[in-house]
């Protein structure tokens, strides 16, 4: 079982690296499953490793605020990047062809999260499906750009 889990993690890392490379080579544009969806690159310091970790993630610009959602596609565990930014909220964000910007990640408190999540589901209904797949509260983080 652990070998299969290791292979799945390696496959996900490879997929993420290809997406990161495509994003950077094409001024923030990627094809495949992310085509046409707002995507950013989030670089955070690993909670355990202390090493920088870059992850492509969808984002939502709502009323001038940039939000990322720790949906993990409805899995029962938050994505690794959520653990990282909880431990180290100072991050770097790449959006489009713009140079990387420093930001602070702020996890929304439950009431604020509950008011934003329906607006996210309006724009991307798959997030409603993710919420149905898990018992955990899917976290939302605001990226406050410096």
Automatic annotation (TrEMBL):
One of its GO terms (cellular component) is plasma membrane. It catalyses: oxidized coenzyme F420-(gamma-L-Glu)(n) + a quinol + H(+) = reduced coenzyme F420-(gamma-L-Glu)(n) + a quinone. It comes from the Bacteria. Pfam families: F420H2_quin_red (PF04075). GO terms for molecular function: coenzyme F420 binding; oxidoreductase activity. InterPro entries: F420H2_quin_Rdtase, Split_barrel_FMN-bd. Belongs to the F420H(2)-dependent quinone reductase family. This is Hemerythrin HHE cation binding domain-containing protein [Frankia sp. EAN1pec]. It comes from Mycolicibacterium parafortuitum (Mycobacterium parafortuitum).
